[in-house]
Amino acid sequence: MSESTEPGASAAARAGSSSLPPALAEMAGFLLAKAHALFHERANAVIDSDRLTIKHFGCLTVIADEGPVSQQVLSARMRVDRTTMVAIVDDLEGAGLVERERNPEDRRAYALEATHAGRAWIEDKRGALMAAQEELLSVLDAGERRALVDSLQRLLVSQATELLADPAVEVRAR
To answer: 31 exposed, middle or buried (CB, 10 Å; 0-12, 13-18, 19+)?
Structure first.
């Protein structure tokens, strides 16, 4: 039995793939970065906009789901620095997808809320984004896809407490 067909061999070795550098083929960080790049490229093709990207879709989706929410909380939830978040929110506001108003509880902060057009844009893009995700993950069966998502959720939640919203900081009540 050759090395590439041994039961314990990696998927890349079993497939005889030379697309992954052997020195990095077992490094999770490298693999996650490459998978992220593939998802990002396909998602931005679905978004199909000169100004808006998958980052905008992600932020708007969180605003629609959890809003009204402060820019500070959104920045922490999305793990995006504050300067970049201001630019993303400016783009969303300029496109009419989000409203940014002063938080009545803290005049120094903004409360973000998705507009009707923003919610419609999310729904318009969601199906095609999910189809692109399914296409990329089509080499995995349903159980492997679920295991991948479960493992990534567990990894992220265990490492990054800022991914979990702080109810004391969120702007939820009107």
So the answer is: middle
Please give the structure tokens belonging to residue 119.
């919610």
98-141 pLDDT, tens digit per residue, is: 999 888 778 888 899 999 999 999 999 999 999 999 999 999 99
Which alpha helices (H) appear in the chain, and where do they start and end? 11-15, 28-47, 54-66, 71-78, 82-94, 116-136, 142-159
Beta-strand runs (E) in 9-146: 69-70, 98-103, 106-114
Domain CATH number, residue 91? 1.10.10.10
Cα separation, 143 vs 136, in Å, equals 15
Residue 139's domain comprises: 26-159
30 located within any domain: yes
The residue type at 121: W
Pairing state of beta strands 69-70 and 106-114? antiparallel
